[in-house]
Amino acid sequence: MRTVRMGKTELTVSKNGFGALPIQRISKSEAVYLLQKAFYNGFTYFDTARYYSDSEEKLGEAFRYIRNRLVISTKTGAQNAESFWKDLETSLRNLKTDHVDIYQFHNPAFCPVPGGEDGLYDAALEAKKQGKILHIGITNHRLAVAREAVASGLYETLQFPFSYLAGQQELDLVESCRKADMGFIAMKGLSGGLITDSAAAYAFMTQFDNVAPIWGVQRENELDEFIAHGADEPLLTEEMQEKIARDKKELAGDFCRGCGYCLPCPQEIRINDCARMSLMLRRAPSAGWLTDEWKTEMKKIETCLNCNQCASRCPYGLDTPALLKKNLEDYRTNFCPDM
């Protein structure tokens, strides 16, 4: 399997990385099986977070006896030093390890720096001094914060959404990380499920030797696809490039990426799914989205308070209430007129 050097960390990881957010939705035994299967088929990089409910615990269970044979990154959403230390100790306990290879600030609205009132970066430096974390990274969905992190020289890795739907701004960000010798971790490589051709997604990533993609895996068939791609790399053919161009044209403009930072909703609307329902219905098998359960979920949009909490939290600046209403209208008109 192709490998990637993670910038100045000098860590070398598999081009296939395992994004462990989805395993919070499956049982511990199922998760352990998937994680170990991934490792024994060439995956050496696994990414999780404190926010991913029991994901860390599942990694800890899967890798407690082979910890030093792989790279693990996790994240803290702490807003101050006290919470930072609490999160870190919890992560170490969950992961059954004495260190985290890459410890990342999880989508902060600002770029933590030494001497900041929040104390976050100074806490990370102390944790690094103690050997509890080896490298300091940051994740984000905001270009401005990502650019600031790269320019600061303070971070060894950046995790940012990157897929074949990326525009010039994201491509420039990848290049700026290369120049800064900073590891680039690509999340949302399938754009939250809107990209349905994993071979094209993988082939696109092979163009960038400094990009380490992490694929969100929940099912064995999903894992098997990426194992196959790692063993026998798909080529970025002319046909694939035409498909990518069609997808970029179709998905140009404002659309929900499904990141979930808009949640929770006071009306319990599943915004990250409901706000992109129209696209999912047209880009994936539709039967699963037309069940009574999903009709009930979509109907909750009628209870929207227009409080705009979701819009204020959207890292892409979307008018989320308007997107929800648009998707409900399409759902009713074209798919479920009996609602």
Q: Could you give the count of β-strands?
A: 10
Give the strand order of the largest sheet, numbering strands 1, 2, ... along the chain.
3-4-5-6-7-8-9-10
Overall pLDDT: 94
Q: Which regions have little confidence, pLDDT < 50, spanning 5+ residues?
A: none
* Architecture (CATH level 2) name of the largest domain: Alpha-Beta Barrel
**Range of strand content:** 5-15%
Sheet with the most strands, sense and barrel status: 8 strands, parallel, barrel
Instruction: Tell me the domain tally.
Output: 2
Radius of gyration: 20 Å
Amino- and carboxy-terminal Cα gap: 48 Å
Number of helices: 14
Shape: globular
Please give the CATH class of the largest domain: Alpha Beta
Which percent bin holds the helix content?
Answer: 40-55%
The CATH topology label of the largest domain is TIM Barrel
- Helix- and strand-based class? alpha/beta
SSE pattern:
EEEHEHEHEHEHEHEHEHHHHHHH
CATH superfamily of the largest domain: NADP-dependent oxidoreductase domain
